[in-house]
Amino acid sequence: MKTKKKFKWLKIIRNIILFVAAVLLIVMSGNGIMTMYEHKQYPAWGQYVEVKGKKMHVYTKGTKGRTIVMLPGLGTAAPVLDYEPLLNELAQQNKVVVVEPFGYGWSDQTNAKRTVDNIVGELRSALQQAGIPGPYTLLSHSASGIYSVYYANKYPDEIEAIAGIDITLPQAVEYFKESVPEIPAYMSLIAPSGIARLATYINPSDFLPKADEGTYSDENIKLTKMITAWNAYNKDVVNEAKEMEHNINATKEMTFSPNLPVIIFTPKIDKVTEDGKSNITFYEEQLKNVRTHQLIVLKGHHYLHWTHYKKIADDVNAFLSATPARPF
User: Which sequence ranges are marked TM in the entry (predicted)?
Assistant: First the structure.
């Protein structure tokens, strides 16, 4: 009797496993078919350029003024869509470019390591292939601050200014005595498994900009959900997070050049360490030797451009207008 009961339970467990596997296979297959359909139905807004044998998406708006290159924060699934309100404001007086890195937006994924040298090299190649000459103002959000610092130090003649939105700088880890956060490797299964697609329908607020109604159009929101289903925590994003400690170590001796104009926007955060350190004191420390700089504190969250896109655009335009353009 005990043997029969044992086999009965084993059969039930086996059937449950087979059922779950079948459901996952159906969801994954459906997600794959949907993704292929969406890529055809909703083509990229900009142009594709070839970088290291892969397609990289470059979107450009505006024809006059400075050339502003916008770089996304780690894991921002659809950079062009995320930046759209700020991009539209800046494009009224500037030529604005969003280069979507591999694993982001409409760009391909890659097997190349997500080192700072590779990421910046790919960015430069994309700009060159797209026929967009410098000098550039790099407008970075979050982790892309590290890439901006590296770019400006390695190719100083190509960069005429840096604008940062709550940017990560390599000295922050030592300044705050913090460890470098990581994304678990299993997270790279979220998009191909179809879980990301389901999550965007079940709880879309977790994946959409937290902005005033009307800031982002219905079309933008629809596309953001769609591209999140393609890209959420994909292998490139996970590998980029994995390389973050290496990238910080590779740039920790790099600082802003005294001659490089820098403007930084940071949220007002009441959190202060026991020794009086905050995001504001940190940025002040990094900017103290920069001759032309500005630190602007705004009420809001990490993605300040969701709610303050007009002010950020006005302040960036005013800052650039006050600094002489660099010939290239």
Answer: 12-34
What are the two backbone dihedrals, phi and then psi, of residue 63, each rounded to the nearest 5 degrees?
-130, -10
Please name the residue that has the structure tokens 């090299």.
Answer: 121
Measuring CA to CA, which residue among 107, 103, 158, 142 is closest to residue 267? 142
The answer to whether residues 237 and 102 touch, using CB atoms and an 8 Å cutoff, is no
From 3.40.50.2300, 1.10.530.10, 3.40.50.1820, 3.30.70.1230, which CATH number describes the 50-322 domain?
3.40.50.1820
Is cis: bond before 72, omega within 30 of 0? no
pLDDT in tens, 161-203: 999 999 999 999 999 988 888 888 888 878 788 888 888 888 8
10 Å Cβ neighbour count for 162? 25
Answer for the pair 278, 271: CB distance below 8 angstroms, yes or no: yes
Strand, coil or helix: what is 313? Answer: helix
What are the φ/ψ torsions at residue 195 (nearest 5 degrees)?
Answer: -65, -40
Instruction: Specify the 3-state DSSP secondary structure of 35.
Output: helix
The SS3 assignment for 49 reads strand
Q: 283 is written with which tokens?
A: 């940025």
The Cα 207–Cα 322 span in angstroms is 37
Phi and psi of 99, rounded to 5°?
-100, 115
Rounded to two decimals, the pTM is 0.90
d(CA 264, CA 149): 13
Percent of the chain with pLDDT over 90: 71
Whole-number Å distance between alpha carbons of 102 and 123: 10
With b for 16 or more beta-carbon neighbours within 10 A and e for fewer, the 4-13 pattern comes to: eeeeeeeeee
